[in-house]
Amino acid sequence: MFRLLILYTALAAGANTGFAGEIDLSAAREGGIDLVAGNGEPVTDTGFTNPDGAELSLSDYKGQALLLNFWATWCAPCREEMPALNSLQKEFGGENFQVVTIATGRNPLPAIEKFYTEENLDALPVLLDPRQKLAREFGVVAMPATILIDRDGNEAARLMGPAEWNSETARVIVTELTAP
Fold this sequence. Notes:
The chain is built from six helices and eight strands, in the order ααββββαβαβαββα. By secondary structure, it is of the alpha/beta class. It has a single domain (2-177), classed as Glutaredoxin (3-Layer(aba) Sandwich). The chain has a six-stranded mixed β-sheet with strand order 1-8-7-4-5-6. A two-stranded antiparallel ribbon has the order 2-3. Strand 2 and strand 3 form a beta hairpin. Mean pLDDT is 91; it is low at 1-18.
C-alpha cells in the first residue's frame, strides 16, 4: 500500500517528469518493476515480420509510445507475463500507446498460435524476429526483455527479466510514458 502511495504522489507531483515521456525510475523500482534508464537515443529501425512474412519496423509506430517486449514460447517467465501484457494493451492500447510483443529466435508459428489461444491473448500482435536481429540490436541477452520507447522513438527505459505488467505500477509507468 505504501508503494502505491509513493507512486501516486510522484505522479501527482510530477516527480522526474520534466520532459514528455520521462519515467520516474525510482518510483517504478519502489513499485516492484526494476526499470533502468534507457540510452535516450533513437531506436533501431531493424525489421521484423508478421506471420505472413510482411516486413515491419518500429517506425511503423511513429508518434506512439511503445512497450516493446521480446519473448519466446519456450521461456516460462515470458509465457507467465504475456496475459498481463495483453491486459495492458487492452487498457491503454490506442493512438498514443502500443504493446508490441516480438517472438525472437526459434518460435514455430503453430506453437505461438496455440499459446495465444490457450491464454486468450486477443490484443497482442504476433510478430517475429526469427534470426534475433532486432533483439541483438537492443542488446537482448535473456528473455523476457522489455524496452520502453517514447513517442519520439527514443529508448526511455528497459528491463531484463519479467515484471508484473498488470499492476498499478505498470499503469503509472504507461501514464508517464504517454504524458504530453
